[in-house]
Amino acid sequence: MKFITFSGINKSNIASNLGQNDYSYFFVLQDFLPLLQQFGEVLVTDNLEDVDKLYAQLSAAGESAVFLSFTPPHKTPLNMACPTIPVFAWEYSNIPNQVWADDERDDWGFVLNQLGRAITHSSYSLNTVKAATGEELIIEPIPAPVWDGVAQVREDRKTPLQKNVTLSLSATLIDSADFHISTEAVTPNIAALAGKDLSFASEPWAGETLDYAFHGGSELFHSGFYAPESWGMWSRTRTPWLMLPCSVDGEITVALDIQAYGNNVDRDITIALGDLATTINVPHSGGVVEVYFDLKKPTNCLSFGNIDLTPPKNSQDARTLGIGLKSLQVRRAEAHQDSESSPAPTRNTAARAPAQIPLDGVVYTSVFNPTDGRKDWESIVTAFCCALGDKADATLILKITFNNLPAYLDDVFNLFANLAPFKCRIVVVHGFLDDADFEKMLRATSYVVNTSKCEGQCLPLMEFMSAGKPAISPDNTAMKDYITTDNAFVVDSDVEPTWWPHDPRQILQTLWYRVSWESIANAYRESYAVAKSDPRRYSAMSDAAIESLRKFCSIGELAPRLGRVLDGIADAGTHSDKLQASSDAEQQQ
User: Are residue 504 and residue 360 in the same domain, yes or no?
Assistant: First the structure.
């Protein structure tokens, strides 16, 4: 048997597509490969047009083949000559059974009955599909077989408490310990960042001029400013700051088109680039102000201070306004500008040194996409701070699976400010992690955390638990198959109405689960106490996690299910054959 496989995302573009629609199908396909290879050779294609070409070549050589489309049913092609099996996740109480975009594939029951075979990932989704399709549909619950891939981590299990461990990752880190956090604002702590490369960008600076305008929007991350307006943007705190897309160094000129409000007119405003600061005076009319810096350390933090938020008399604006920015330019100082005869600057492609996370105590890790409404990630953070805010040895790692840092970082900082003060530590890990870095994070974790309203299978939860990491998690939807009181601190949840995620009408006609915030906070408290003072219980939970996930997602358990899906497929005929037979039957009638 030959397997032709496809997912909408591939190795070449997964890093730039983290968090986009259906990105997780790429990871599911990668995890399925060892299982498929037990049955035959796997051919991975990035182009649907190649599927039937490969099938024709294999058929001509006397080889049987099947096409596994790692896509949701409404994106699974129906016109393939090659027998087609969709491999999909589903986590809602019923499957889409209507057509809303003039595409009959909107009705998943129609698609699945046409194809005749399918693979989903949990008993919850299996029962949901069976309730809406005919008895003839051949379908099995086959989760991604991740258990076998973390065998070495299981064997190397140690204490749940980290002691003077440094986690090194090739990623962007936003560490709460590196910021001044107050109820008013979150600003970089330059003293804490001494010796660090405070760079949230994926590429170093090549020396090109950086130009940004703030009218109507901003491509720069900004903290302590109101949303950009048609002319620019106003600051709202005493210490607003901007994040450049790359770290700059050397002799720099910063040009700001700036204006002042109220008591800030003709006031000495502090402007700092990294650990260097100076003052500027903004006249009533505003205008372009240029500032020179000689940077010895790379930085991408441009901050402001000594701003007065006192509203002027008879002010009609209730906001706390300080300074207004229309545009920003960062360039090499004039004496060091490249001459016309000089070659254009080239980007330094040397690999950046991995970022370091020092760890002590109990480490919680959650992996999620912050734009995914199912994840309820704010509850992960707020419950952690409220339950363990006074514990300096409690760390929460948020591994973000989304490629746009500015799109969610302001939400993170707003939570920091709303929760201040706290002694516990929160570390945001942004960027695609290769297998080696993911394993490092896996080893450093004491508990994996999930607060999802629903899950199709939840790969990160499965991977961490397969490695012996107990969970804080609800036991709804797919998680019911492997979350128990033996291996997890089970979070309470109850059903509530919602809509199918790809239905543009957003009609409330399905269900997911509302998770109890109080239950999450209690789980943090209990899990922390277990890690600190009850090693026997922790060890028992770790063992139970390993055994539950072995039964759920090991190759040995899943191979017979795949065999049942494939049984007889070489004699079943192609989908196009079935369509033709159906058409012939209708004509005869």
Answer: yes
Q: How many domains does the chain have?
A: 3
Is there a cis peptide before residue 370, judged by omega within 30 degrees of 0?
no
What integer pLDDT is reported at residue 284 of this predicted model? 80
Is residue 384 located within the same domain as residue 533? yes
**Half-sphere exposure of residue 572, counting CA atoms within 13 Å on the CB side?**
24
Establish if 180 belongs to a structural domain: no
Residue 183 covered by a domain:
no
Tokens of 417: 């400010």
pLDDT per position as a tens digit, 59-70 = 999 999 999 999
Torsion angle, alpha carbons of 378, 383, 385, 388, to 10: -150
- Residues 274 and 362 grouped into a single domain: no
Q: What is the pTM of this model?
A: 0.89
Instruction: Enumerate residue ranges in the chain where pLDDT < 70.
Output: 191-203, 335-353, 570-589
First to last CA, the chain: 37
Listed residues 336, 362, 389: the one ending a domain: 336
- Burial (0-12, 13-18, 19+ Cβ within 10 Å), 79: exposed
Q: What amino acid occupies position 144?
A: A
If asked whether residues 50 and 199 sit together in one domain, one would say no
Segment holding 362, helix H or strand E: strand 355-368
- Counting Cβ atoms within 10 Å, is residue 216 exposed (0-12), middle (13-18) or buried (19+)? exposed
Q: What digits encode the pLDDT tens for the residues 466-482?
A: 999 999 999 999 999 99
Question: Which domain range does residue 284 map to?
Answer: 193-336
- 429 touches 397 (CB < 8 A): yes
What CATH code is carried by the domain that includes residue 8? 3.40.50
Give me the pLDDT at residue 580, please. 45
CA distances from 553 to 88, 130, 147, 365 (A): 15, 21, 6, 21
Question: Max CA-CA distance within the chain?
Answer: 90
Q: How many helices (H) and strands (E) does the chain have?
A: 13, 26
Cα–Cα distances in angstroms (integers) from residue 438 to residues 61, 153, 329, 405, in the given order: 41, 11, 37, 19
pLDDT for position 445: 97
Same-domain status, 528 and 449: yes
Q: Examine the domain organization and report whether 475 and 391 are in the same domain.
A: yes
The tally of CA atoms less than 13 A away on the side-chain side of residue 178 is 22
Q: Which two tokens stand for residue 517?
A: 């915030």
Query: How large is the C-alpha radius of gyration of the chain?
Result: 28
Give the contacts of 34 (CB within 8 A, at least 6 positions apart): 145, 148, 149, 555
What is the predicted pLDDT for the residue at 343?
Answer: 39
Tell me the pairing of strands 241-260 and 287-305: antiparallel
Domain assignment present for 176: no
- Does an H or E element contain 545, and which? helix 535-553
The reply to whether 341 falls in a domain is no
pLDDT of residue 317: 86
Q: How far apart are CA 44 and CA 69, in angstroms?
A: 10
383 and 486, same domain (yes or no) = yes
Q: Give one word for 500, left, alpha or beta, with left for phi > 0 and alpha for psi -120 to 50.
A: beta
